Amino acid sequence: MIAFLLAGSASAPAKAASPWPTWMLPDTEHLGIMLARLALTAVAAWVAQLLLFLLVKRGEQWLIRATHDTGHGVRRARTVGQLLRNGITAVVVAWACVHSLEILGWDVKPLLVGASILGAALGFGAQFLVRDIIAGMFIFIEDQFVVGDTIEVNGQAATVEAVTLRSTRLRDFQGRELHVPNGEMKVVVNSSRGWNRAVVDLPVAAGQDLAYALRLAESVVGEMNNDPKWRALLLEPFEVMGFERASADGAVLRAMGRALPGGDAARLSRELRLRLLQRWKDAGIRTAVELAPMRRVETEPPADVAG
After folding, report:
1. Quick check: 178 and 172 in contact, CB under 8 A?
2. Is the dihedral of CA 24, 28, 30, 34 positive or negative?
């Protein structure tokens, strides 16, 4: 009997020791079925994402029609669609991962409980992340800005390229890409809403005939307002406000108008500034740049040191 047992044990193939714990390995007897179920899970996640993306696209089109295809309505619809797509992708990927673990034979209930406990623990250390997400939700709810708007954040002017719940991607005038956490945006200046003011300030040198300069400016502004090319860009015509400041170096003349958001205000200001400078030059009126008084530099040591 002993010899028979020894012979049987010698004939049986020895199993190689696995470096992984047995509870981490899938059931090899049903490996084909598991692979098929995993493939079906991936396909189902992909189809669900496509269908949900299609619903989001239909929602964007409905929002665009509801806003009568205005520029702001289109940008807001695209921003909402971008946020929804990011959320859908996160939910679908999370579901596919959890379902795949169930197919492999893992008990995901303790994993989910542990994840909730870990999330609660990390919540105390992720206060800035929670702050950014809450700020991103209010940016979306209050419609503070959308993709395509030109905004100024912390003194930096840039165009919004993407908005997520955590951060906003911007592109400045030099073409540099900026990533700003939503919670860091204390004061946001949006230049793409309502209207922009076109302001032209021109300094007149001291000793010039200010009344004559004012009459010439009013004449140039009238011509600008009546020009069909530029009148179409004005919401309100230019108006000469008069001289804003006066000093020993001269006075500053100001003219203002209103234009649509975007680059119209800048183009109108440049054109009016060019016309005023040319008219004043032809009339012999000199302009001057108002300089701040320079601080006197001490070239001699104090009396107590010199002594």
Report:
1. yes
2. positive
| Calpha distance 176→173 (Å, rounded) | 7
Three-class secondary structure assignment of the chain: CHHHHHHHHHHCCCCCCCCCCHHHCCCHHHHHHHHHHHHHHHHHHHHHHHHHHHHHHHHHHHHHHHCCCCHHHHHHHHHHHHHHHHHHHHHHHHHHHHHHHHHCCCCHHHHHHHHHHHHHHHHHHCHHHHHHHHHHHHHHHCCCCCCCCEEEECCEEEEEEEECCCEEEEEECCCCEEEEEHHHCCCEEECCCCCEEEEEEEEEECCCCHHHHHHHHHHHHHHHHHCHHHHCCEEEEEEEEEEEEEECCEEEEEEEEEECCCCHHHHHHHHHHHHHHHHHHHHCCCECCCCCCCCCCCCCCCHHHHC
Q: What is the C-alpha separation between 72 and 193, in angstroms, rounded?
A: 8
Q: pLDDT digits over 209-250, tens only?
A: 889 999 999 999 999 999 999 988 898 999 999 898 888 778
Which residues in the chain come in under a pLDDT of 50? Answer: 1-18, 20, 23, 290-307
Cα dihedral across residues 43, 49, 52, 56: positive or negative: negative
CB atoms near residue 162 (< 10 Å): 17
- In angstroms, how far is CA 239 from the centroid of its own chain? 35
Write the CB contacts of 89 (distance below 8 Å, at least 6 apart in sequence).
Answer: 49
**Contact 225/231 with Cβ under 8 angstroms?**
yes
pLDDT of residue 222: 93
The encoded tokens of residue 15 equal 């199993």
Domains for the chain: give ranges and CATH numbers.
27-125 (1.10.287), 137-190 (2.30.30.60), 196-283 (3.30.70.100)
